[in-house]
Amino acid sequence: MAAVFGFLAGLFGAVTLLAFGTIPLESPLVTLLPILGLLLAFVLAMWAPIGAAKTPASPPESSPADADTI
Q1: Which residue among 1, 6, 31, 32 is least crowded, i.e. fewest CB within 10 A of its CB?
Q2: Residues 10/34, Cβ–Cβ less than 8 Å
Q3: Are 14 and 33 in contact (CB under 8 A)?
Q4: Which range is least confidently modeled, 29-33, 35-39, 50-54?
């Protein structure tokens, strides 16, 4: 899903730059932006996957002194 979003973000970014006249149609950025968006989104998706914690967080240990204060 991230790769699709990255490709579309790069594609629409290139189309936007073309529409506003920032880059000419013959520019290699028209081809490179969708590819770079695809690669960047894929790298970010692999770098920070949701819910992929290696070790679960353990609850803090209570000491006997904590039990007296309740």
Answers
A1: 1
A2: yes
A3: yes
A4: 50-54
Residue for token digits 């967080």?
A: 57
What tokens were used for 39?
């690669």
CA 57 – CA 70 distance, rounded (Å) = 25
DSSP-H helix ranges across the chain = 2-19, 29-47, 64-68
| Closest alpha carbon to 14 in 5, 1, 3, 24 | 24
Q: How far apart are CA 21 and CA 16, in angstroms?
A: 9
Model confidence over 5-31: pLDDT tens digits?
A: 999 999 999 999 999 999 999 999 999
